[in-house]
Amino acid sequence: MAVNTNIDYKKLRIDYISSWPNSNKFPVEVKYTQLINSYKDKSLDVIFKPLKYPYTNDIHYNIALSFMIDALDVLNEHPNFSFDFLFIAIDTYSDSIYSNINITERLQIISDSCINNSFSYPGIQNVFNLLYKYMPNSTCQFLYSCIFESYNMTNDIMQQNGVNKQIIGRIFKRNSGGVVYNQNFADLFSKIALKYGYDYNNYSNSIRKGSRLIYQIFNKSLINIDNNNYSITDGNKLTLLICGILYTMRNDSMHGDGISSFKSSLAGLKTYAHNYYCFLCEYIILTLLIYPVDTTNEQILCNNFSDNIKRYHDIFKNKIIKE
């Protein structure tokens, strides 16, 4: 990731606080505003069009929608905060359905339930295929780094004891019992570790190629590595998205594991593409959770989801997303 060496960000942060509330935006924030305004000017349309949700007195449904409003209100400037608000909505609403179960298990249940129920409708399957098609490089590398940056090559993937232990457990285990629910999928990631590793000094052949393989996992049903075939199911993909990418994003944000997303010399429009994409994924998952698909609303949901995915693509295009 390129670092902007021409600006002293330490001084910039201090100056920003000293000048508040009349502070100037950080450089990448200016670029994002320009990107959004450019899309609006060319399309004569909004960047995101939420669903017209049905009316109900259900308190948990309305709590979820209240966080949806918070998410939408900051999307034009802070998609990272939009992501945070929607995760709260998913967390709160899922807790009302699956009480006395921790968030890790709830997200696994949501993933399994979506596969068993929502994916029985072909339109929903097509929506997720489109969503995966436009997954940005930055999201693929985020997941790759979370799994492999601290990977111990002397241990099997299910015996990792570094900071990657939790994300590996969330992806490959079920019911808090430590049982590997898909050994073939775990074996694939063990093979990825051996083939590509995590070496910044050999970025192109290590992290870049490994991250592109993550993209292929989401967009193929069969992966071949060194003449070994690994089948990829819809359940594998959704678990990787929900329990791997989205939950880890939430943990990084809530636990302060890194610097503020857009107040860093490392931040770029790719950072925005990643945060916006994760918000979009949550929007679809939350909607399917609070307004389950059936024969009466399938077309409405699919049209709305696909439309917003295409808006996302039109905003960021190929300078952010490598298709």
Describe the structure.
This protein has 323 residues and is mainly alpha-helical. The protein has one domain. The protein is 62% helix and 4% strand. The protein is built from 13 helices and 4 strands. The protein has a two-stranded antiparallel ribbon. The chain has a two-stranded antiparallel ribbon with strand order 3-4. Helix 3 packs antiparallel against helix 4, helix 7 packs across helix 10 (204-219) and helix 8 (165-172) runs antiparallel to helix 11 (234-254). The chain is globular and about 55 Å long. The protein starts with 8 loop residues before the first helix and ends in a 7-residue tail after the last helix.
* Number of DSSP-assigned strands: 4
Strand proportion: under 5%
Compute the average pLDDT: 89
Q: Report how far apart the termini are.
A: 19 Å
State the shape.
Answer: globular
Determine Rg (CA atoms, Å). Answer: 20 Å
Strand order of the largest sheet: 1-2
Total count of domains: 1
Low-confidence stretches at least 5 residues in length (pLDDT < 50)? none
Structural class: mainly alpha
Secondary structure tally, helices: 13
Question: Tell me about the biggest sheet?
Answer: 2 strands, antiparallel
Fraction of residues in helices?
55-70%
| SSE series | HHHHHHHHEEHHEEHHH
